[in-house]
Structures are given as structure tokens and as C-alpha cells.
Write a structure and sequence with these properties.
It contains six helices and twelve strands. By secondary structure, the chain is α+β, with helices and mostly antiparallel strands. The radius of gyration is 21 Å and the shape is elongated.
């Protein structure tokens, strides 16, 4: 599935996401925020200017979010920008329940934020015997390679395959290759490798 389809799923199908920032005490804080719109520039959400969440967004300029529905999840972490009242009318038109929460001119308490540069992943365990994991990016973030990777010292012993819950390791060649789109990242392969040549990245 294309990246834009995962973003569309986040906004239109899942809609509500747990969003993390850092509180004034230096610890993570999470709250549920509705993802209101999406386009080629990013994902849009809003909050009231009087909230602590607003202050954190303004001072930190960065969030992490995770949204789950029917054993499918979308997670993103990246940069945000305040775009004021831009898109506010469109948000209220598309998300009509907001008109009852902030009727009339009370919507002036709100400002819109755009997640414009981010990376993350789509993770699907709806078929437990065959999980799906795919990377997602918004904008042009610096890519981060993550997962378990097999080094050149691999001897092809296949012990890693024997302990892999998803059997997502191609053992037809040496070094063997881990399918990153199906890997659970449990680390069992790295633990059993006699050459300790399986590296965790990210």
C-alpha cells in the first residue's frame, strides 16, 4: 500500500491518535487527539491556545503519535508547525462534530498544527501468522534505518530461522536476509546467532 494510503487511513479510518510531548516536569505526556485532515503537505490537528498541550507544541515543535484500530496501527514522529486558523474552516466542515464542541465564534480559541516532516510505520497483526510492517514518511525527514540486519560473518547455520516466530528470514543464501516488512523485531535471531553477526539498528 502507498504511504498516502496509510496517512489517509490514520485520518479517515482511525482518526483518534495518542499524541506524546514532554511535560514541564520533563516526563512524557500523552493525550488523545483527532487527526482532522491530510494532504500532500502533511497531517492536520488542532488544540485550544489555553491548553498545556498547546504550549508544549509551540515550545517543542515535535510530536510522536500512535493510532490503532482492528489490529492495524500507524505510528509517526516528527516536526510540527503552527498554521494558525489556516484550514480551520475546512476542518470544521469535514469534522462536523467540532461545530457542537466549539459553536459559533468560540472556535477562535483553536489553532491548527501540521505534522509536516515525519517518519514512522504501519504495522498490521490482523493475520497473526503473517504480520506486515512498512515504513511511512511525510516530507523529507532524514531516514533512520531500524530493525535487525545480518552481517557478512553469517555462516548460514539457519539457527536464526529456527527461532523466528514469523519465519521471515530468507535462508536460501549466505548471508541470510531478514524481511524487514514482516519482522517483529523480537531479537531472538540475534540472541541465538553463534557469530553474533546480527545487528540491531535504530
Amino acid at each position: 500500500m502507498a504511504e498516502k494510503n496509510y496517512i489517509q487511513m490514520l485520518v479517515e479510518e482511525i482518526h483518534s491518535a495518542a499524541v506524546a510531548t514532554i511535560g514541564s516536569d520533563g516526563h512524557p505526556q500523552i493525550r488523545t487527539i483527532d487527526m482532522m485532515l491530510w494532504d500532500e503537505k502533511g497531517v492536520y490537528f488542532l488544540t485550544a491556545k489555553g491548553k498545556a498541550f498547546y504550549s508544549q507544541l509551540m515550545s517543542q515543535g515535535f510530536i510522536a503519535l500512535s493510532a490503532v484500530k482492528d489490529k492495524k496501527s500507524v505510528s509517526l514522529r516528527g516536526k510540527i508547525q503552527n498554521i494558525g486558523s489556516e484550514k480551520l474552516g475546512e476542518i470544521f466542515e469535514k469534522n462536523t462534530y467540532m461545530q457542537k464542541i466549539y459553536p459559533g465564534d468560540t472556535r477562535s480559541a483553536l489553532e491548527v498544527f501540521r505534522l509536516y516532516e515525519a517518519e514512522g510505520e504501519y504495522f498490521d497483526i490482523s493475520d497473526p501468522s503473517r504480520v506486515v510492517r512498512e515504513g511511512i514518511t511525510i516530507g523529507q525527514p532524514k531516514p533512520t534505518e531500524s530493525g535487525y540486519f545480518v552481517g557478512n560473518q553469517c555462516i548460514g547455520c539457519k539457527l536464526c530461522y529456527s527461532v523466528c516466530p514469523q519465519k521471515c528470514i530468507d535462508i536460501s543464501g549466505v548471508p541470510v536476509i531478514i524481511d524487514q516488512n514482516r519482522c517483529l523485531r523480537c531479537g531472538r535471531c540475534a540472541q541465538i546467532c553463534p557469530k553474533q553477526t546480527i545487528e540491531k539498528r535504530g
